[in-house]
């Protein structure tokens, strides 16, 4: 079990033109990690994997455990081996991200963070599943639902990617969230403050898996796409 390897299926860049077909099953993804994030075919909700269990937050805000046959166009996973980094009290999202980078000194490395605690002013989102023919990421992401909680206890799982790899992943932080009672979660857009414990896991290896059996992916000309702008607009 490699705890220094981050496994990534697909890239965020391939989502930009609407290559949203599920090209990896959840069963296959879980062979590469017990922790992670992702989205389903057609941008079907937001996923967060904790202790080997994959939770999907759909566009109605419902949280479900998905089966082995659930397919994904994009996902990250790894085997958890988090190490304590710090405790925070009433830290904003911006301050938290800055503190993590300053304390870890890992701005040019891939790493994951896990935060358990109480979050206030939380805003998450989940996109409604679309059907073929798929539209672009920018168009599909408009069909999103935004959810808020004044205060909620839960877990944040996030990945940091160096700016050098922007487009393959999101350059910077990409966070998903799941409430402890499993009634709330999604892609984490923002929070006002968090009080809790922060742990970190550094990766020395990125294992990039591409959907080479998918004809649409093999034939697409990515030179026509505005990759970075569309990725950051959709993920922001």
Quick synopsis:
The protein has helices at about 10-15, 25-30, 95-105, 135-140, 215-220, 225-235; strands at about 5-10, 25, 35-40, 45-50, 55, 65, 70, 75-80, 85-90, 110-125, 145-160, 170-180, 185-190, 195-205, 205-210. It has about 240 residues and is an alpha+beta fold.
Question: Could you describe the 3D structure shown?
Answer:
The chain is an alpha+beta fold and 236 residues long. The protein has a single domain (5-235), classed as 60s Ribosomal Protein L30, Chain: A, CATH 3.30.1330. It has 6 helices and 15 strands. It has helices spanning 12-15, 26-30, 93-104, 137-140, 215-219, 227-235; strands at residues 5-9, 24-25, 35-40, 44-50, 53-57, 63-65, 71-72, 74-78, 83-91, 110-127, 144-161, 172-179, 185-190, 193-203, 205-209. The protein has a 7-stranded mixed sheet with strand order 6-5-4-3-8-1-15. Strands 9, 10, 11, 12, 13 and 14 form a 6-stranded antiparallel sheet that branches. It is globular. The chain starts with a strand and ends with a helix. The mean pLDDT is 93. It is an enzyme of class 4 (lyase). It catalyses: (2S)-2-acetolactate + H(+) = (R)-acetoin + CO2.
Strand order across the largest sheet: 6-5-4-3-8-1-15
Rg: 16 Å
CATH topology: 60s Ribosomal Protein L30, Chain: A
Secondary structure category? alpha+beta
Beginning-to-end CA distance, first to last residue: 33 Å
Give the helix level as a range of percent. Answer: 10-25%
Enzyme class: lyase
EC number: 4.1.1.5
Protein name: Alpha-acetolactate decarboxylase
Keywords: Acetoin biosynthesis, Decarboxylase, Lyase
């Amino acid at each position: 079990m490699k705890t220094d390897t981050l496994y990534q299926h697909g890239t965020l860049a391939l989502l930009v033109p609407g290559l949203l077909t599920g090209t990896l099953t959840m069963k296959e993804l879980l062979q590469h990690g017990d922790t992670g994030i992702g989205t389903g075919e057609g941008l079907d909700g937001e996923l967060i994997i904790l202790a080997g269990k994959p939770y999907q937050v759909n566009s109605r805000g419902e949280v479900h455990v998905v089966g082995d046959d659930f397919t994904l166009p994009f996902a990250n996973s790894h085997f958890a081996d988090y190490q304590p980094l710090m405790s925070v009290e009433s830290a904003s999202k911006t301050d938290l991200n800055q503190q993590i980078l300053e304390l870890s000194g890992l701005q040019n490395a891939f790493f994951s963070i896990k935060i358990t605690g109480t979050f206030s002013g939380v805003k998450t989102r989940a996109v409604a599943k679309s059907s073929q023919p798929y539209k672009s990421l920018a168009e599909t992401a408009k069909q999103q639902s935004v959810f808020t909680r004044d205060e909620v206890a839960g877990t944040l799982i996030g990945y940091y990617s160096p700016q050098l790899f922007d487009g393959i992943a999101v350059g910077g932080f990409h966070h998903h969230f799941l409430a402890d009672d499993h009634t709330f979660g999604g892609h984490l857009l923002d929070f006002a403050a968090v009080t809790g414990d922060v742990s970190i896991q550094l990766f020395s290896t990125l294992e990039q898996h591409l959907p080479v059996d998918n004809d649409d992916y093999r034939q697409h000309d990515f030179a026509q796409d505005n990759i970075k702008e569309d990725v950051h607009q959709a993920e922001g």
